[in-house]
Write a structure and sequence with these properties.
5-stranded parallel β-sheet; 9 helices; alpha/beta
């Protein structure tokens, strides 16, 4: 029977009355977190890293150059190759151009499949709350701005990018978790800390 919050590849129960055992076995040594902007990928990476002692890699910090400049594809691919060669990590970020590469190195994928309204609200809150400042999970010299193009991407994510991401992880060889509600994330973190 498929349980809420995960695919059939990993049997994990997120019921409030019982928390799963052996979480360190469910969460591997190379965890990749995907999902819509605003779903909480960076926050979840920090929480998992803190709970199980994995180094955290925020791809936004590594990708962007000061002034929101993008690296060349070759340089980015070299960077990602070096990052995934590390023996242990929790990595957040979508970056479709290197997703296949990261999936070959990961042993666990967590996909945050939250509603569009929630992700949009969170992104707007983040933009307004951090406007003009560089967030901790962002590259230096990249201050938060009100970016209409990015907001459009968030609003259209479920229609445009989500199907590609789900297709990419469909054949993933490791453990897959699809979390559809913030409460499932809360229970996962509580279980990891117990």
């Amino acid at each position: 029977m498929r349980e809420r919050g995960v695919t059939d590849q990993v049997s994990v129960h997120f019921a409030r009355s019982s928390l799963p055992l052996a979480w360190r076995q469910v969460i591997g040594n190379r965890v990749l977190i995907l999902g819509c902007p605003g779903a909480g990928k960076s926050r979840l990476a920090l929480q998992i890293g803190g709970a199980v002692g994995l180094p955290v890699i925020h791809l936004d910090q590594r990708y962007w150059r000061p002034g929101w400049q993008e690296p060349s594809r070759e340089i980015w691919r070299q960077q990602v190759t070096a990052l995934i060669a590390q023996p242990r990590w929790v990595m957040d970020g979508n970056y479709g151009g290197t997703l296949a590469l990261r999936l070959t190195a990961a042993d666990t994928v967590i996909f945050l499949d939250f509603p569009t309204w929630l992700c949009t609200l969170r992104v707007l809150r983040r933009m307004l709350g951090s406007y003009g400042r560089t967030r901790d999970d962002m590259a230096p010299g990249c201050p938060e701005a009100l970016d209409i193009k990015f907001l459009r991407y968030v609003v259209r994510y479920r229609r445009d990018a989500r199907p590609r991401h789900l297709a990419s992880i469909a054949g993933f060889h490791g453990k897959r978790m699809i979390l559809r509600r913030p409460g499932e994330v809360t229970r996962l973190i509580a279980a990891l800390r117990s």
